[in-house]
Amino acid sequence: MDNAFSKFANLEVNTWAANGDSVSRDLLVRVSGSLCSRIAHHAHQPSFTTLRPHNGETADETNPCIAMIMGNAFEKNHSLLYDHLLRRDEKSEGLQNYPEDVVKCHEAFIQTVRESMEAKVEVVYGAAVRERMLQKQGYKFDLFPLWGDYDDIYITLDRESNYSNAQQGHRYRRIIVFVAHPQRFFYPKPEECARQDKLLAVAAKIAGVNFIERYYNNQKWRTIVPFNFSSVVKNKFYGILEQPQSDGDSGNASGWVPMTSMSKLTLADASTSQVIGGYKDFVFDDGKPPFSVQELRKILPVVVATETEHNYHLHKWENLADFPEIVGAWLRRQGQTLFKGRLIKGPVDIMLVYRQLGTMEGPPGENLSLAEMIYGLIKMQARMIEKLPISSLDDLIYYRLRPFDVIGAICYNCRQPMSQDTEARWAVMRLGHYVIRRRRCNSGICQGKCRAGIPRDSSIPFVWGSRPDLSAQISRRIREDWRETIRDPKDCEGKLSQPVESWCIICKENTQLLGDRTRYLEEVPRWTIGGPPKYVERRPMCLNCQSEGRPGTARFVPVDATIPSIYKKKLTSIEKTFGGLEKDVKAEILGVERTSSKNPRAPAGPRPSRAQALANKSKTLEANALSMLQNSSTAVEEEQNRIALSNIANASAFDSCLTISPCHGNLVNEVAPTLKRPLTNMPHWSSIGGASKRPLESTSGLSFLPETKSKVKQQRIA
DNA sequence: ACACGTCGAACAATGTGTAT
DNA sequence: ATACACATTGTTCGACGTGT
C-alpha cells in the first residue's frame, strides 16, 4: 500500500501543478490499517486540528473527530481508516473547492483501496461524503431498511458493479453504513445520538468488532476528546461564540493545539476533569479582556523587571502560585494576545506556544524551564510592542505575535483578494474580532478605491475600526448566511452583469431619492443561485414616501417587470432551513422559490404602542403555557412535525433519491444472520443513486415519515 | 405559517482633513 | 502617495407588528 500511496501522492501534486497550484506533499495523509481489516471507516478530510500535521496518518488520535471515530466500532488491528480526501486542509471544503481533477485523483486512489480491502462493512461519516458518493461518483446502492429495535434506520448495499474488479455471481460487495459526522455530536440532539449509536452497533455487529453501547448518547467519547474542544469546534464549524475565551479566531485550526497534547495522560486517565492534575491554576480568567497596547506599554517593563529580582528561584516554578503576582496577572490575560484563544492549562501548552512563536527568534524550548519560557514570551511581546506605531486607538486594540498577526484579506465590497494584513489588530472589547483596515482595492469592480479589507477566513469575525465601533462590547451579529444563496460575481455574466434599476414598491414612477434621483441604480446587482436567478432587493430611503407620511423604507423592486426579485430576509430563512444541503440542491430550491411581489399589499392598521405590545406578548405567553398544559398532545404533535421537517431537510438528496425498486439480495443474510428479516414483513427495498437528478422531486420513498405540513411544502417546492 | 410593513438603532461605506 | 482618524450619511439589522 505504501507504494500505491507514493504513486498517488506524486500524481496528486502533479495534478495541482497542472492547475497552476503548488502544494505540499507532506500534507497528504496516509490510509491507516490493514486491507484485511474487518471494518473500514471512511471519513471526510483531515484538518489542522492535530499535533501531527505533517506526513500524517489518518488514525491520528490527536484530532478530536478521528479520536471519536477510533473510540467506537474500531479495533486497532481489525480496522481500516481513511479519508475521502487525503489532503490536510484548514477548511474541509475540498469537495467544493478543489479542482475536479484533483478530487477525482483522490477518489480514484480511495477506490483502489475500497476495491482491495476485505472489510464487509464500511462506515461513511458525514453528509458531504455521502452526497458525493451518491451523486457525483454515481455509485449504485440498494437500501435495506431494518426492523424491530432498528426499524428507524437502514443500511446500504454496495453493488458489485460499482467495482472495476467486479466478480461474476456476486450482487453486492459490502454493506455501507452512512452515519453522521462526529463533529455533529458536540451539539447533540437525543434522537441523533440514538440513531448514530444504532447505526454503529449494526455496523460493528455485522463486521464482528466490539462497540460501545450508548457511546454517543451518553457522550462516552468525552473520555477521549477534551472538554474544551466543544466550544472551539462550535465556533469553528458553527460560528457561535460560546465563551469569550474561545472566541472568534480560535476557530482557526492551524493555530490551535488541542488538549490531547497530553493525549497519553488523558487516555490513560480517562477522566477529563483531572487531565492535567496539579496545573489547574493555569486556566485563564474567563471574564477579563486582553491587555490593550496601551496597557501593555505600561505593564510590560514592570513584568520584565521581575526576572532579575527573582532570578534564583526561577527553576523551581511549577505553577501559577510560584510566580510573582504580576507575572501571573500578565499570563492570565494573554489568552488572546499570545495564545490566540487556545486553552493553556499547563507547561506543555506553554512550551508548544513558545516553540511555535519562537521559531524565528530565541532558543528552542525543549531544555528550558517553565520560567525561562515565560520570560521568553514576555520579552518577545515587549519587543513587538516597542516597534508598534502609536495610535489613538491603542486602548482598544491589541496585537498578536507572529505568525498570528498575519491575516489574509479580501475586499468587503467585491470579495476579491487584497494584500494580506501583516500587522493585524484585534479588538479588546470584542474578543477575537479582527479590526478592519481600509486599503485600495484594484479589482475591476472597485477600480482602486479605498475599501475595507476583511479576513479571508470567514470564521474570523471583524469589526469596523472606529472608536464607537471598537468601544461597543456587543455586536449585532450580522448575518452572513444569506451570502451562501447568492452567485459569485464572476458567475454573473451577460444580463446578470448589467446594472439593475429599481423603484419604491409603493411610489413607482414617483419615487424620490436623495440627489434628485427617481430610480435606484445598482451597478453590481446581487443575484441568487439557481435558475432563473432572482435579483436581491435593497431598501434605500424613499423621500416621496416620507413626504407622504410613510416611513420610506419600503422594498425597492426592479423597474423592469420581467426581472424576478427576492428580499434578503427570505434568503436568510431559506439558508436556515436548507443550509446543510449541497449548493446545487439549494440552487434548485431557490430556483423554484416564489419571487416577491411587485405590488405593495394593503397597508396595515396603526401600530399599537410598545408598552401595549409587550403587555400583549406576555399575555400570549401565558395563554400559550396554559394551552400547552391543557392540550399537551398538540405540543407533542408539533414537535413531531418539527422533527419530521428537519428530517426531510437533513435527509436531502439522499432520501429524496429513493424510488421503490424491488430487488433481491442474499449477502445480508449470509453475513448478518441476526438481522434476518421476518418473512411476514415483505421487503420494500429501495434503490438509490442515479435514480433522480432532481433531488427534491421524489419523496415517495419516505412513506415511513409522518404526514406533515412540511411534506406539503416539499411538494410545493418541487 | 407565511409575507410582508414599521421602527429605532447599529452598521457599512465613503468623504475629508491631517500626519507621515 | 498612503494610511489613519474622524465625520457623515445611506443601508440593513432584529424585533415586533398585522393581515392572509
TrEMBL record:
At the top level of its lineage, which domain of life is listed? Eukaryota
Q: Where is this region: Disordered?
A: 593-613
Feature: compositional bias, Low complexity: 600-613
Task: Name it.
Answer: Uncharacterized protein
What organism does the record attribute this protein to?
Hyaloscypha variabilis (strain UAMH 11265 / GT02V1 / F) (Meliniomyces variabilis)
Lineage at the top is: Eukaryota, Fungi, Dikarya, Ascomycota, Pezizomycotina
